[in-house]
Amino acid sequence: MDSQFGLMNVWSQGDFVTKFVAVLLVGMSLASWIVIFIKAIDVIKYKRLAKHSQDFWHSEDFATALNKLGKDESNPFRGLALEGREAAAHHRNTKAHLHDALDVSDWITRALRNGIDEFTARLQSGLAILASVGSTAPFIGLFGTVWGIYHALMSIGSAGQATIDKVAGPIGEALIMTALGLAVAIPAVLGYNALVRGNKFVLTKLNSFAHDLHAYFVTGARVQATDATIVPLKKG
């Protein structure tokens, strides 16, 4: 691209507002790429943990099953298993009036639901940044374009010349701001959609795991186990 229409030319000839818009768009782009990179790593990690979570049910007792989930405290499947165990133990050891108010099924359901809600909030953190960038960047770029065209026309009017060679440069430089806004918004939107799909997959697996945990702590066995080799866990 000719230097006449380059970003450096826009920067050198732009006023404070134009430079501010350009810096804002660049900052939004950096923020969105950082979020995409970090959250993509998290999604890949949690998908791998979800794949290995089925090993939990191929164990003779709960302690062995818990060890198969590893020692990583950020593992949501391990966290749910611990939440369920603590809720079941707490319900057994509480006074009678708690049993009258809430049975063991409701108590464990509440504990598992709280664990899922906390993980969901952590999993979706940062997505608001991508949504905001994707929805506002095109308009910020358009604002920069309108501002640049306005000042270009003012300069042309003061010079008293409106030939194509005088108009093309300033107008082309202003239009670069629109292109910059789209270049910032498109990756943010695509990244947001990809992360939402990945998060949905992880949460589906986590909810299925929580359903099996609930059945185990209430009945002592996993419900609807399709693998015939799975042995009901011994509580421990």
From TrEMBL:
Is Ribosomal protein found in the keyword set?
A: no
What domain of life?
Bacteria
Give the residues annotated as coiled coil: none
The chain positions of domain MotA/TolQ/ExbB proton channel read 100-201
Q: How does it sit in the membrane?
A: Multi-pass membrane protein
Question: What Gene Ontology cellular-component terms does the record carry?
Answer: plasma membrane
Q: Which InterPro entries match?
A: ExbB/TolQ_transport, MotA_ExbB_proton_chnl
Tell whether DNA-binding is among the UniProt keywords: no
- Give UniProt keywords alphabetically: Cell inner membrane, Cell membrane, Membrane, Protein transport, Transmembrane, Transmembrane helix, Transport
Transmembrane ranges?
Answer: 20-41, 127-150, 174-195
Q: Where in the cell is it found?
A: Cell inner membrane; Membrane
Gene Ontology BP terms: protein import
Purpose of the protein: Involved in the TonB-dependent energy-dependent transport of various receptor-bound substrates. Protects ExbD from proteolytic degradation and functionally stabilizes TonB.
User: How would you summarize the oligomeric state and partners of this protein?
Assistant: The accessory proteins ExbB and ExbD seem to form a complex with TonB.
> Record's family?
Belongs to the exbB/tolQ family.
| Identification of the protein by name | Biopolymer transport protein ExbB
Recall the taxonomic lineage recorded for the source organism: Bacteria, Pseudomonadati, Pseudomonadota, Betaproteobacteria, Burkholderiales
